[in-house]
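S1.2 Input.
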Amino acid sequence: MTDIVQITVDGRPLDVPAGRTIAAALMLEQQRMAWRTSRVTGRPRGVFCGIGVCFDCTAVIDGAHGLRTCLVEAADGMVVETSAQPPSIPDPSEPAQEAADDT
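S1.3 Output.
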């Protein structure tokens, strides 16, 4: 008999075999093979390397942004948000905003 943990993904419960990563759990559902989109082209993204080298599989897990789902083991009660947008990355072509001088 396989132990099952229940996580919540985008507000919906998902039963997952114990010991699976969040990425593996998401891939159990055919419609979740990709749960992010590319910022440039809008094309679907999901697991690419599966070993934590790339950042294609990130999600918000228990409130922590940008976690690589291929490295996080599913735990009972865990809350995963795949639809949350990652924090914006500053445009390197724009000058950095300098902090006000307190002196």
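S1.4 Remarks. The radius of gyration is 17 Å.
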